[in-house]
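Lecture notes, structural biology module. Today: joint structure prediction for complexes of two components.
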Amino acid sequence: MLAKRVSIDAAQLGDLDHAAWSGAEPEDVQLAPVPLELQPSAYLSRGPKDRPVGRVQRLRVRSLHNQNEVAFLLEWDDPRADLVPADNDVFPDGAALLFPLHGEAPLMTMGSPDAPVAAWYWRADRPGHGRSNIATGLGTTRVVDEQSIATHAAWRAGRWRLVFTRPLHVLAAEAESIQLRVGEPFKVAFAVWEGGNGERGGIKSFSPSWHEVTLEGGARSARQE
Amino acid sequence: MTVSQTGRMVDGRVVEPKRQVAMVFDLNKCLGCQTCVMACKTLWTKEEGMAHQWWAVVNTMPGRGTPRDWEQSGGGFDAQGVPRGGRLPKRGEFGEAWEFNHEEVFEGGKGQRVHLKPEGDPSWGPNWDEDQGAGEYPNGYYFYLPRICNHCTHPACLEACPRSAIYKREEDGIVLINEESCKGYRFCMEACPYKRIYFNHVRGISQKCIFCFPRVEKGVAPACARQCPGRLRFVGYLDDPNGPIHKLVKRWRVALPLHPELGTQPNIYYVPPLAPPRFGPDGKPDPSQPRIPTEYLRSLFGPDVDEALALLRSEIEKRRRGERSELLETLIVYRWPDQIFPDFQRDPATL
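The predicted structure, tokenised, for the full assembly:
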């Protein structure tokens, strides 16, 4: 996927309804439920197999950048917005991007001790900012920061639209955050949690393979705007 | 990250801790005064998001319990050791923390006209069916069942957590939720068959009884045990042959686990309640039929309950004949605190 370069600022990039998004080429991503057998929990991996997992099956992704910030716009169908975990058995909707921190990492295990993964994580009951997480295997996710990633989400008529915005390079927690460069392809995977289906933790839909993204531009066309 | 194996099933066997601290509750002595419940509440569950949490409860049995219908909510392990699915009890089933009309009654001058009552119109609470029991007059019956986290030897909660946020301490077998690791997934709440885990909606984490481990580490008994005026909550190590726990559980086998068929090997044990005789159709007491049906006690404590009840009766008979009974001396607790929690006698005021 090519993320087109546009000349708008970060606030505009992060605006779901900005006209620039209509010029961004979408990619449709197939999602699959995470297999229960892989969960690092005997209750989940060996317990009842009829537990509902991963209801969302398709995700539409677009990406834009302005050389300083990058934005990813995600869209998916969801009959009901699960915003507030109002009861013990109610969970909020969520979505995330996953990146190998150092170029390569196993996707099915959420990274490994030698190949960590970084995640940008949004939850419907935490508006405005996402979480920057790091993981070195299933069940090891840790929060790195809660400020660097801006989110803007809206649910309308059975569809969620969500945009993540972040500077290409972050200095705070530099070593534990994915650093992106114009012109250099990187891998990304996706996950969606349908809160109304009791999805949380490893119970989610995910893209079973990495997708390659390149931020348009490079050494030749790099210039100050 | 090394995940502790204590409490996990590894190669077909549960990895046991070096020592296991346990409690025995003598149900013959429990009055349902709820002092234990309040001791825990005032010590631990007054922080944000904890108003509805009752880590210690005392349920009237037969009854639906706390949370409502916990005994039909699944969890635990089946006979082959495979985890059973469990449901997440709702907030209303645990019982919400009610707000009361205190100002109106105590300061609004309406104390003579308005009852103190919860706001809204609750239809369930944490102890809603207190003293209802079962049976028909003149053979109605119930008893009180104090319940806390069982700090199981094979905790279903520990094995359910995909983040290994729950661990069992090697030094004493206390099971704890690491609040830094917990992300509030609540699989532990599904898996626990005793439903003693609560969710903190403000902090987004699961919480439960901690066996007062900061007190235990200093030789002070857990608050619920220390505050009990009935002297029915024994605390000690299962492996100490001189302590009351070992004697009641291992030697005399008069203290039994609750719902042993759930497969988690709980470490809270119960001395089953004796009952007066039922009245027969002729209005005369029938000593062969206790008011609390033995079948009901079997459904709670398993088939070993018959022997436990028989032993209690025969020891009472010994005393009636003027003979000594070490079992009854142990249960009566003439001297407090050394005969009820000899390893945890320290007064918390001296901390």
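Point to remember: Residues 278 and 291 of chain B are 5 Å apart (CA to CA).
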